[in-house]
Sequence to fold (428 residues):
Amino acid sequence: MAIILQSSSFLISCNSVPSTSSCSCRRGLIRASINIPNNQKHKISLPKIQRRERSVQEQELISRFSTISTGSSPIEKQFSPSKKIDSLVIEKLYAIKEAVADRVEMHRNIGEQRSQWNNMLLTSINGITLAAATMVGIAASNGDSVLGLKMSSTLMYLAATAMLVTMNQIQPSQLAEEQRNASRLFQDLHNQIETTLSIGHPSAIDVKAAMDKVLALDKAYPLPLLGVMLEKFPSSVEPAVWWPQQFRRQLKRVSDNTENKWNGWNGKLEEEMKEIMGVLGRKDQEEYIRLGEKALKLNKFLAISGPLLTGLAAVGSALAGPSTHGSWAAMLGIVGGALASVVNTVEHGGQVGMLFEMYRSNAGFFQYMQESIESNLTETEMDRRENGEVFEMKLALKLGRSLSDLRDLAASSSYKAEDLDEFASKLF
Fold:
């Protein structure tokens, strides 16, 4: 159309000029008219196509705006059932999250309370013991009117003995450490639930896994003292277990991309995980079990020695007097009370029970790491495993190592095996 307009304007201009130029203009018009059919065929058809495409796009935009305004789109209709299921799952996870947050605060408060028990009972028993020893010394130095001092010191020693037996049975420092561990682990579970909710796409498997973890923690760290309290002097040291025995992982969607087909795993990473699992079992877990056994033996010795010394001191205070035998009995009452206060201070002031629980918990942590590695390696379906790269990073952070340092540890373990002197964990 533009060529036709130009040619028509050119023809008008030629009519207004002399004849010599009009001939050349007509010749130019003839040449333009010869070329018109080809240009016209291409130039005129393209705007029609563009107009058709534009009209189709406008119709699509109008239909989209109309569906948005009405609030019912085909996508929403297609995924509305799954959204209802996800909302129910999210509601359950929020309920579990609130319960976990309540348990965190509960265990923290009870841990502080039992730590105060340890301090108050330690101060009270030592005060009673030293006061009874002082009375025995005064009764032994005075020959007359010592019956009241002897009876008072004897009763105070007997009371200290009964209090020591009770205190050694419950081990307040160990109870406080149990509650601190429970508070930390429940806080970790709270953070895991928050991560699941923030990432999105939670499922019923996540709800089941969270419930199992809560129940396992309740069983591992009970709140009551009577009936379900953990044994404070077991026959053998066993690692603490606070996780469900069966690891559950959500079924993940397999990507068509070849890089993601193996879910971040490869043969080299599997061999590294096997070596690290061996180091955790041979070095770290065995070391903390050995330390736990030593702490348990020391705690047993101190728990028996304290009440025994106060009991002997009570007998000595009852027999104390001016005679020869009475002087030896008075010495037994004084020395026994002094030694009992020293033993009580070492046991409960040094918190030997807390050390035993800490070693037992650390051994359980390394057992948990081994089981988590083993559960991933034994899973044959790659899409059911945790992502290999993410799992390796988590393991390195929990062991206090960088990724390169973790790989160097695996290489050293494969080379030295049993002769490896290095521990897997650098945190504790």
Observations:
- The mean pLDDT is 80.
- Residues 74-141 form the longest helix (68 residues).
- The radius of gyration is 42 Å.
